[in-house]
Amino acid sequence: MNDFKGMVGSADALLTDVAHSTTEGLASARTAVEDAMGDARSRFLQARSNVTGQVRHTADVTDHFVREHPWQVLAGAAVLGFLAGVLINRR
Questions:
Q1: Sign for the pseudo-dihedral over CA of 41, 42, 43, 49
Q2: What is the pTM of this model?
């Protein structure tokens, strides 16, 4: 999140520079913005890859547990359903 805030601050500074610069300044500002966006894109893709891997691992572990202990999972779901019904009917 701090990286994102830093990128936004950098983009804001670049926009301020662009407002007060010449044609040469615009070209360098454009290059700087493109570099910052490329860096942000690569960080986002890496974060997405990490989250996807964690979600797949969690799904695999959950699937394995449910297949190994189907009756315990069914009993747990029944208890949770009962408790939810009791809490809803209390209102």
A1: positive
A2: 0.55
